[in-house]
From TrEMBL:
Keyword Transmembrane helix: yes
One Pfam family named in its UniProt record: FA_desaturase
Transmembrane residue ranges: 105-123, 129-149, 254-272, 278-295
Keywords in alphabetical order: Membrane, Transmembrane, Transmembrane helix
Family named by the database record: Belongs to the fatty acid desaturase type 1 family.
Signal peptide residue numbers: none
Top-rank taxon, per record: Eukaryota
GO biological process, one term: lipid metabolic process
Protein name: Fatty acid desaturase domain-containing protein
InterPro entries assigned to the protein according to its UniProt record, in alphabetical order: FA_desaturase_dom (IPR005804), Fatty_acid_desaturase (IPR012171)
Iron keyword on record: no
Protein species of origin: Papaver nudicaule (Iceland poppy)
Length: 404
């Protein structure tokens, strides 16, 4: 449901989930309306996906309830007290959630390999009009490969570190993702989650960047607009293949991973084309790969992006607030949760990356019991995605985000 901001002379209020911002408080709250749909001479109505968040109001329970309805959340957590540390939160988790179980770990591999094989079979047998469904299934299945490699990178897949490096590399190869470059950058994302400049997952647009060059401005609008569900492709290209982005002691492992990826491209792609033709390469590899990047992009957005979740400068940033208050738990349809190994049970993963994917639900249940009122939770829905896609654009110190 769209929010409406009525420009008249009174304060902030809500009605049936629709947000009304009155003119008398706009300047005080520095709220910028995003989309003007209609104009009246005396009383103009401006409709937007969501209003900006006055930081001083987020502590109000009724305000958060109405805000969660407007944004598509089931709950927006209250601010975490300043005296709570990340160590305090970790210590409330049961020790069993950190335990590695080889049977459960290899079960995730079995699920991913089986679901991927089923997807390839579906693509080979589907008439043209059912191919999108087969691509969607197969793209989701290979997202499971990514999650397995993700566990390996966090040393939560196996007690044998060589096994983890081998499985992680193999899991990433069909995705053309170099395992070690991604691991190095992803570790930084966990250490600097939602920190301006430092977080390597993604950053909001800077106003100076947006205003600099008209061509760049247009590219940013498309990138953060209709192409945003595939923005991870740009991130993949920019962050993982440039050797200058890595420390000297990382380069040897980076080069090995790049060699593995290039070997897959040099051998795997020609084999696919030889056996199935160029159209077969599109059907069996490219379209599932684009499906994987849809999940890669949208999962990342949902996990850490909302109008009320701020990016902070390094001197203001707090680990506990960023990992607990700045991460979102999102429920997806069961088949997605199964194929993607519960990666969207994401808050415990940021409290401690050493928790294996198969223990994330138990860890989240513990967090709900001990820290439940501070959690951001949602069910995947259109309003949630619309809020992220149309509001969370340009960085604003006062409002967190300003839409294009």
């Amino acid at each position: 449901m769209a929010s409406s901001c009525r420009l008249s002379d009174s304060s902030f209020s809500f009605s049936t989930g629709i947000c009304y911002l009155k003119f008398g408080s706009l300047l005080h709250q520095r709220v910028r309306p995003y989309r003007c749909l209609s104009h009246e001479k005396k009383n103009r109505t401006i409709k937007s996906v969501a209003a900006a968040v006055p930081p001083s109001s987020i502590g109000n329970a009724e305000y958060r309830k109405k805000l969660s309805e407007s944004y598509g959340f089931t709950q927006i957590g209250e601010p975490l007290p300043d005296n709570v540390t990340l160590k305090d939160i970790v210590e409330t988790l049961p020790k069993k959630v950190f335990e590695i179980d080889d049977v459960k770990a290899w079960k995730t591999v079995l699920i991913s390999v089986t679901s991927y094989a089923l997807g390839i079979f579906m693509i080979s047998k589907s008439p043209w009009y059912l191919l999108p469904l087969a691509w969607a299934w197969t793209g989701t299945a290979i997202t499971g490969f990514f999650v397995i490699g993700h566990d390996c990178a966090h040393k939560s897949f196996s007690k044998n570190k060589l096994v983890e490096d081998i499985i992680g590399t193999l899991a990433f190869m069909p995705l053309i993702y170099p395992y070690e470059p991604w691991r190095f950058k992803h570790d930084r994302h966990h250490a600097k989650t939602n920190m301006l400049v430092e977080d390597t997952a993604w950053q909001p647009v800077w106003k100076e960047e947006f205003d600099s060059v008209p061509a760049l401005r247009k590219a940013i609008i498309f990138g953060y607009g209709p192409f945003r569900p595939w923005m991870s492709i740009a991130h993949w290209l920019m962050w993982h293949f440039d050797l200058s982005k890595f420390r000297p002691n990382e380069l040897k492992r980076v080069k090995i991973s790049l060699s593995c990826v290039f070997a897959f491209m040099a051998i795997g792609w020609p084999l696919i084309v030889w056996k199935t033709g160029l159209i077969g390469w599109v059907n069996f590899w490219l379209m599932p790969w684009l499906g994987y990047h849809f999940w890669m992009s949208t999962f990342t957005m949902v996990h850490h992006t909302a109008p009320h979740i701020p990016f902070k400068t390094s001197d203001e940033w707090d680990a506990a607030q960023a990992q607990l208050n700045g991460t979102v738990h999102c429920n997806y349809p069961s088949w997605i949760e199964i194929l993607c190994h519960d990666i969207n049970v994401h808050i415990p993963h940021h409290i401690s990356p050493r928790i294996p994917s198969y223990n994330l639900r138990a860890a989240h249940k513990s967090l709900q019991q001990n820290w439940g009122k501070y959690l951001n939770e949602a069910n995947w829905n259109w309003r949630l995605m619309k809020t992220i896609m149309t509001v969370c654009h340009v960085y604003s110190e006062e409002e967190n985000y300003v839409g294009f």
